């Protein structure tokens, strides 16, 4: 099917797994499961606007969650250095390598190494996976113009309240987002290794309140087994 989860993943060139602001343990577990399942198949990054808390440290791959949205463009800044002191900036390509040269004006010194600040901007992903969240406001990055042409997919146990943006929803009732993620990973034919399974199991346990939640079904136990 054209809009099946598997077909969306297969047609993507680069994927951004986007967690909501102040995510729950279950949401982070599900997001990391997607990241681990996709990273060897597609160019994949996982981002959260809120910092990871100590509780999440037992999840595999939590150190891969970034707070920076952009990875497309490299930005070079010179801290505490006046632009008016620069005569010109040029670049050369030699042996397949690019070098930048900053030429200061006569009588001024060039920037020092410790003044060079590197960062990234711009979102390269063409497919965005929104994990959890209740409204678009939980994903501040959706206001970025860089996402205007990206395909946006939502995965959650409840539908996402959206405004003008077109969001393809895979929301459906489940004990947890991790349970739903496990089903989608299986449906898409993605590889499920021990690290992914560990995250999903912990996410299901937390999200289902140790299998005592009202949305726990026989399918929950079957999937967990």
Provide key terms for this protein.
225 residues; alpha/beta; six-stranded parallel β-sheet
What does this 3D model show about the protein?
This protein has 225 residues and is an alpha/beta fold. It has 5 helices and 10 strands, in the order H-E-H-E-E-E-E-E-E-E-E-E-H-H-H. A 6-stranded parallel beta sheet has the order 3-2-1-8-9-10. A two-stranded antiparallel ribbon has the order 4-7. A two-stranded antiparallel ribbon has the order 5-6. Helix 2 (25-38) packs parallel to helix 3. It is elongated, with a radius of gyration of 21 Å.
Summed up:
The protein is α/β, with parallel strands linked by helices and 225 residues long. 24% of the residues lie in helices and 24% in strands.
Shape: elongated
What composes the largest sheet? Answer: 6 strands, parallel
Task: Give the topology string: H per helix, E per strand.
Answer: HEHEEEEEEEEEHHH
**Number of E-state strands:** 10
Query: Kindly state the mean pLDDT as a whole number?
Result: 88
Helix content: 10-25%
**What ranges have pLDDT less than 50 throughout 5 or more consecutive residues?**
none
Distance between the termini: 28 Å
Tally of DSSP helical segments? 5
* Computed structural class: alpha/beta
Question: In which order are the strands of the major sheet placed?
Answer: 3-2-1-8-9-10
Rounded to an integer, what's the Rg over CA atoms?
Answer: 21 Å
DSSP strand (E) fraction? 15-25%
